[in-house]
Amino acid sequence: MPLAPALSHPDTFVVRPLDRNSESDRASWARMRLILFDDLDPEFNEADMAAFEERHEQEVLLAFADDAGLEARGFSETVGAGASEPTASPQARGFAEVALRNLVDGCLTSPVGYLEAIYVDPAARGHGLGKQLLDAAKDWSREQGCTEFATDSDLKDVDAQQFHLANGFSETYRIVQFRMDL
Question: pTM of this prediction?
Answer without folding.
Answer: 0.80
